[in-house]
Design goal:
alpha/beta, ProC C-terminal domain-like fold, 12 helices, 15% strand, binds NADP nicotinamide-adenine-dinucleotide phosphate
């Protein structure tokens, strides 16, 4: 006899910072209705916050797996093996299991979760909490189209997402995973420059952050390449080209490339 279709479209195990961010994004983006979601967490405070969205919250991770079509696991990387290991006999054949645990490969997820579920590994970033995540995801083998679409829709509701081969996840970790820290340093340095040129700290920080946001939007929305945007803003013998020259003298590009590569190398090293 066929198994009955589970009641909830999405189950979430771990409703901390990232679990809740994806839950809120999924609801806001119309990917799931709150009434289609069941979530579990060991922390009562996190369960209560999840319930505020209108979803069902429980202490029981097994209930989440048994009652959901797709399961998103958003616990810390140190906890994920034990959490999945406890649930391995609960996963249905072909059930979608999505992990966002940083640095935990598909092979480890498979060993812990057993043979039944279809696996997806996601590398989101902290910007998920403001709906501007840059995420990449990899699956083990080809997913059924409906599941592929669900993953893409959920991650896109929280920002932008690309599908990559798993061997590129370390590169993603170095770029968009660590990138918010690099961009924060750039904004801080721009603001310091503004203060040095006479602006107040508050004004300089707002102008630096908003300039970064606006430039990123121009590149993403107009599909402009960054070099063209730079060229458009540099008039002959003008102010901007003088600043660009100073950045080149300071080795900005090489420093940023080195940072991404160093972070990707470290991710590879930590992943063993
Ligand atoms: N934060 C980021 O910027 C970021 C970026 C990329 C990837 N990630 C990944 O996202 C995942 C979640 O990170 P986070 O920052 O959201 O962590 P978090 O805020 O600590 O959330 C994890 C939640 O899971 C709960 N939990 C722990 N053990 C559990 C269990 N056995 N069953 C059910 N719930 C359990 C935790 O409760 P307690 O706190 O009471 O233990 C906590 O509420 C991590 O794997 C991380 O690698 C995070």
């Amino acid at each position: 006899m066929d198994q009955p279709t589970p009641r909830y479209r999405l189950g979430i195990i771990g409703t901390g910072v990232m679990g809740r961010a994806l839950l809120n994004a999924g609801i806001r983006g119309g990917v799931v209705a709150a009434s289609d979601v069941i979530a579990s967490d060991v922390s009562e405070a996190c369960r209560l916050e999840a319930e505020e969205t209108g979803c069902i919250a429980t202490e029981d991770n097994r209930e989440v797996v048994e009652q959901s079509q797709a399961v998103l696991v958003a616990v810390k990387p140190q906890a994920i093996r034990a959490v999945l290991g406890d649930l391995r006999d609960a996963f249905g054949e072909g059930q979608l299991l999505i992990s966002i645990a940083a640095g935990v490969p598909l092979q480890t997820l498979r060993e812990a979760a057993g043979p039944a579920p279809n696996l997806v590994r996601v590398m989101p970033n902290v910007c998920c909490t403001v709906g501007e995540a840059a995420s990449a995801w990899a699956s083990e083998g080809r997913l059924p189209e409906q599941q592929r679409q669900f993953v893409a829709d959920l991650l896109s509701a929280a920002g932008q997402a690309v599908e990559v081969k798993e061997e590129l996840i370390d590169a993603v970790t170095g770029l968009s995973g660590s990138g918010p820290a690099f961009v924060a340093m750039f904004i801080e340095a721009m603001a310091d420059g503004g203060v040095r040129a006479g602006l107040s700290r508050d004004q300089a920080q707002m102008l630096a952050a908003q300039t970064t946001l606006g430039a990123a939007k121009l590149i993403l929305q107009d599909e402009q390449d960054p070099a063209s945007l730079k060229d458009r803003v540099c008039s002959p013998a003008g102010t901007t080209i003088a600043g660009v020259h100073a950045l080149e003298r300071g080795g900005l590009r090489a420093a940023v490339m080195d940072a991404v590569v160093a972070a990707a190398d470290r991710a590879r090293e930590l992943g063993g």
